[in-house]
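Course assignment 3, question 2. Fill in each field.
Student: A.L.
Task: Predict the tertiary structure for the chain below.
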Amino acid sequence: MEADADFALLELAESCVEGCAFSACDFSRATFADVAFSNCDFSNCDFSEAGFTRCTFSSCKFTGANLTESMLRLVEMCDSTCAYAFFTKAKLEDAAFRATDFVHADISEARLRRAAFDDVRFAGTSFFRTSLAGVDLSTCQMSDIVLSDTMSELRGCSMDLFQAAGIARRLGVIVKD
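Answer field:
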């Protein structure tokens, strides 16, 4: 296990990273291209302004990680956790997330382009000022998500009837069976 190490500005390409544990390490402004991460723990690491291109994450842990202003492009993440992680002002482009936990994550002011979420858990997750237009949330678990007063973040997204009823209740609409 590596703790508090400085990996700022690291460049890693065409690699497999498996079973590694990092704690509170600095990966700020690092770039990763064509990297497969498996069973890695990046809890409380700083990935601010980092770039990930054509990377995969399988069973990885980003609890409390800082990905502020990071770029995730052509990325796939499955069976992972991003609980309490910060994706503030991040760019997620052509990114797919499956069976991943975003409990209390901050995805505020982020830009999502062709982002896909399948069986993802959003509980207490902040989407403040992040447009979800074109995003299908119908297979996701959502509770107590943080939105602006106007809830404009939800304009143009897809959700199932149960999710829509929960949002309607937040607006003060009385939903009858």
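Instructor remarks: The CA atoms of residues 83 and 103 lie 5 Å apart. The chain has a mean pLDDT of 96.
Grade: pending
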